[in-house]
Amino acid sequence: MITPYWHTVLTIARKDLRAEVRGRELISSMFLFAVLSVLIFSFALELDRQARENSIAGVLWVTIIFSGMLGLSRSLAVEKDKGSLDALLIAPVHRSALFYGKMLANLIFTLIIAVLLMLLLTILFNINLFLGQILIVVVLGCVGFTAGGTLVASMSVHARARETLLPIMLLPVVLPIALSAVRASTALLTGLEQAEWLPWLQMLALVDLVFLAATYFLFDYVVEE
Amino acid sequence: MTSDTLNYMIMGYGAGFSLLALLVGSLWLRYRNLKADEAALEKLERETAETNKS
Amino acid sequence: MTYSESRNRLLLNLTYGSIALFIISNVLNFTYPGAERTMGEVQRVFYIHLGSFFGAFCVFFAAVIAGIAYLRTRNIKWDHLGLASVEIGLGLSAINIVTGAIWARPSWGTFWTWDPRLTSIAIMWLTYAAYLFLRSALEDPEQRRRFAAVYGILAFGSVLLTIIIIRVRPDVIHPTVAGPSVSSGDVMGDFNLTPRIGQTVLFSIFTYIVLSAVLVWHRVRLEEQTEQIRSRKMEALSRL
User: CA–CA separation, C175 vs A89, rounded Å?
Assistant: First the structure.
């Protein structure tokens, strides 16, 4: 049953997705950036199989994070510059619904880029990334990244130097997620036993929960007028 | 591990104290600048009061 | 709002008290416990290292309280507390990181390594540095205070990360001196915790916590006075 709350969440997400399908601005710039990064990494890291296995997770996550930040700043800048945020704020729904709607849209964009990246890296690095547990890691990582990222970006968008401020604020916040995701993926790829990657996976899930809870309470204070 | 780590100990305490001194020093310096600002401000206030009176 | 006579005196006495504690603590560091068996004199750096970490922890926690209190009451004094706490906390954790690196050189052979605890303390430091950057990037004062409060609360997560990561990750070479840990045999630089060393550590931690509180109070006072001067300046310029 879809309550008004979830209806708002889905409407906002759908609005962003529809705008994207029409304009395709966000996904294309994120994807282009991602492809270029991966190419640069491929050239820079001419490695043997062992070294490639160790570094591919790092390459994947660095690229997801940087192209994700591009998407985040664009997605929230549009909202602020057009003033559409104010219109949304009038809705008689808990403010967090707006947040989760935005976050959902950003999550979908980030996941699309992540999957495309995994495809690209699988081909270029010759290592199969499409293992079950790695997909779980990618999903969890993207959830945490988008949760923290949407909150932080909704603050940084108000600053004059918003493009510089977002990475500075966001990178330390998402580092626990990046760290856990990279360690978990690398352990899985190099075939280590469960005790090696499970703690990182648990850490990821924990950080995700913490972020989702924190953002629920804090978003109200960010968008008040 | 050797037991001749005296030099490192001196380095450690030196660094610790220096950083602490920097921290306290920055507070003190800002306080001094503030006091100078206040003096200039009082001068400005006095002059404005005089010109407004006349 | 200028400080009353009694408040100023209290601060002054506390300042003298903290200086005295600091001197006593350092004298103790060198005289009370003997030189440590396995690593020699450099172990004494540990007293600064631990003390500054606990000091930083307390002030960063104060920043969380200040953030929550500001968001609920919108009283500017909470914002002052938050800012002061983060600044002092950055200084203290810098002391923590540097003394740690100096201690590490003879213990592990290197100043730095990317073991989980060091990585998370670096993240912590950068997160709070970003807090200061955020403040400087926002022009509207009300917005600045509000966002700073939110970010100050979020940033504490990095402190928690530093503390729990040593319990969770087995491949840590930083020694856990107190409490449970799952570290494997990789830990290097563990030392023998005699009762005397333990007491000196506790005293050092106490000293640093008092010192941090006094420093934060001075910084808060500085901020309040700066605000006063600023508003007087506005008034004077408007009357020109």
Answer: 50
Q: Across-strand partners of C40?
A: C36
- A160: domain range? 4-223
Separation CA C117–CA C137 (nearest Å): 30
**C155 close to C131: Cβ distance less than 8 angstroms:** yes
Q: Which residues pair with C173 in a beta bridge?
A: none
Domain, as residue range, for C233? 14-27+42-175+192-238
How many domains does chain C fold into?
A: 1
From A125, A126, A130, select the one nearest A43 (Cα to Cα). Answer: A125
**Residues C209-226 pLDDT 10s:** 999 999 999 999 999 999
| Chains near C (3 or more Cβ pairs under 8 Å) | A, B
Residues ≥6 apart with Cβ < 8 Å to C222: B27, B30, B31, B34
Name the interface residues of A facing C (CB cutoff 8 Å). 148, 151-152, 155-156, 158-161, 165, 168-169, 171-173, 175-176, 179, 199, 203, 210, 214, 218, 221-222, 224
Q: What is the pLDDT of residues C158-173, one digit of tens each?
A: 898 888 877 766 556 6
End-to-end CA distance of chain A: 32
3-state secondary structure of C40: strand
C8 assigned to some structural domain? no
- Using alpha carbons, select from C123, C150, C125, C124 the residue that is nearest to residue C138: C150
ipTM (interface predicted TM): 0.84
Q: With beta carbons less than 8 A apart as the criterion, state whether A221 and A155 touch.
A: no
Tally of structural domains, chain A = 1
The token pair at A91 is: 């809705």
Euclidean distance between CA atoms A35 and A117, whole angstroms: 7
Helices (DSSP H) in C109-194: which residue ranges?
Answer: 116-137, 141-168
CA distance C201 to C157: 26
What pLDDT score was predicted for residue C178? 53
| Lookup: tokens for A90 | 């009038």
Residue C180 lies in a domain: no
Dist. CA C50–CA C202, nearest whole Å = 9
C144 belongs to a structural domain: yes
Give the whole-number percent of chain C exceeding pLDDT 70: 85
* Nearest CB partner across the interface for A176, out of C130, C155, C161: C161
Angle, CA of C31, C36 and C41, to the nearest 5° = 70
Local structure of C36: helix, strand or coil: strand
Give a yes or no: residue C216 inside a domain: yes
Cα C140 to Cα A16: distance, rounded to the nearest angstrom: 29
Position A96 scores a pLDDT of 82
